[in-house]
Amino acid sequence: MPRTQKTAAAFIDPDASLNELREASKGCTGCDLYKHATQTVFGEGPRGALLMMIGEQPGDSEDKEGHPFVGPAGRLLDKALDEAGIARKQVYVTNMVKHFKYIIRGKKRLHKKPKVIEIRACRPWLEAEIEKVRPQGILCLGATPAQALLGRTFRVTKDRGKPIVSNLAPMVMATVHPSSVLRAPDPEAREENYKLFVKDLKVAAEAVK
To answer: I need a labelling partner for 145 at 20 to 30 A (CA). Which of 59, 98, 129, 188 fits?
Structure first.
């Protein structure tokens, strides 16, 4: 018989509060990523948030500080939220995977895409967050959360900025991850990508009013 895959489910009490889930996540060993990460990076934001934003995984800064979206991509997200008229205090931000997966290049720890098995192992945490927060809208940031939640055939490049019918929340949508804006090859492309990102955020904000 095939071995049952380890997941985070064993660490989750369905009756726990959001804060209790956050505390429990610190001891999660549902996959092997915890072995090399500094700490678990759980989601943050208010219960009843208008909008939940879901990225792929914490980055180097998030792993060190223990908070989601506090690095360069997080700062760009904050700027874009402000420009789109969305108060950060009304947003719950989290990731599909709660531990930083990386490879070392010289003295730097560089992002490494999590495997499907790792995303599946961590999904119970996200499902618990959605259940406790009950956001009016969910915005997937990038292909990893979009395909994990909306299907492997979903393409952000094709369907970004379009509200989707889903049982996850009254409004579900996808856009690019803010880190992709920072990776644009030149200032002109970066500015254009940023404008499109803000446009998507404005669509999401209007949809959850």
So the answer is: 188
Contact 77, 37 (CB under 8 A): no
User: Does 77 reside within a domain?
Assistant: yes
Quote the domain boundaries for residue 172. Answer: 17-207
Nearest 5°: CA angle at 104, between 9 and 193?
A: 80
- Residue 11 in any domain: the answer is no
Across 28-68, where does the E strand assignment appear? 51-55
How many domains does the chain fold into? 1
pLDDT in tens, 4-25: 678 999 999 999 999 999 999 9
Region of 45 on the Ramachandran plot (φ > 0 left; ψ -120 to 50 alpha; else beta): left
Task: Yes or no: say if 162 and 146 are a contact pair by the CB < 8 Å rule.
Answer: no
Query: Residue 139, SS3?
Result: strand
Instruction: For tokens 């406790």, name the residue.
Output: 132
| Whole-number Cα distances in Å, 70 to 41, 159, 165, 176 | 11, 27, 30, 17
Maximum distance among all Cα pairs of the chain, rounded to whole angstroms: 55
pLDDT in tens, 123-178: 999 999 999 999 999 999 999 999 999 999 999 999 999 999 899 999 999 999 99
Which CATH number covers residue 94? Answer: 3.40.470.10
Q: Does 163 map to a domain?
A: yes
